[in-house]
Amino acid sequence: MTQVIIDGDACPVTDSIIQLTEGTGIFVVLVRSYSHFSMRDYPEHVKVSYVDDGPDQVDYKIVQLAQPDDIVVTQDYGLASLLIGKIQYVLHHNGMLYSDKNMAQLLEQRYLNAQTRHQGKRHKGPKKFSDEARAKFEQSFQRVIAQISS
């Protein structure tokens, strides 16, 4: 059974995913560190899994949970690179589907940005998440759900 696993410490599309999966039979697992603990109530098809704080603990849990038919939503290129080939769909919150074709370029850019920061310089960061970006993600996510359902 397909589930959506969300890298949930800083995912701006969590509410969209929950809404779009309501009534579809698709379960959502929101993986967060304890430092992002919340008392928020979620619908029945949503489970929150908390892990210890620490570098990459959320990532390790997601890799452990992910099954071939799952969808993972993450902005972490490193995590995405571990999941490509293991699961069917890995999405960025901007709607981009990670693949073998774009992963090398994304990881290279991440490396170059880290080198720039290490040298004490600055680089252009990501744009502020907008309603337009949310709509783009939702369209991409709905296409993925449609592909799984067919």
Relative helix content: 40-55%
* Cα-to-Cα separation, first versus last residue: 14 Å
Structural class: alpha/beta
**Average pLDDT taken over every residue:** 89
Number of helices: 5
Describe it.
The chain has 150 residues and is of the alpha/beta class. It has one domain (3-149): 3-Layer(aba) Sandwich (Rossmann fold). It is built from five helices and five strands, in the order βαββαβαβαα. It has a five-stranded parallel sheet with strand order 3-2-1-4-5, with helices on both faces. Helix 3 packs antiparallel against helix 4. The longest helix has 19 residues, at 100-118. The protein is globular. The two termini are 14 Å apart.
Protein topology:
Layout: E1 3-7, H1 14-21, E2 27-33, E3 46-51, H2 57-65, E4 71-73, H3 77-83, E5 89-91, H4 100-118, H5 131-149
Parallel strand pairs: 1-2, 1-4, 2-3, 4-5
Helix pairs in contact: 3-4
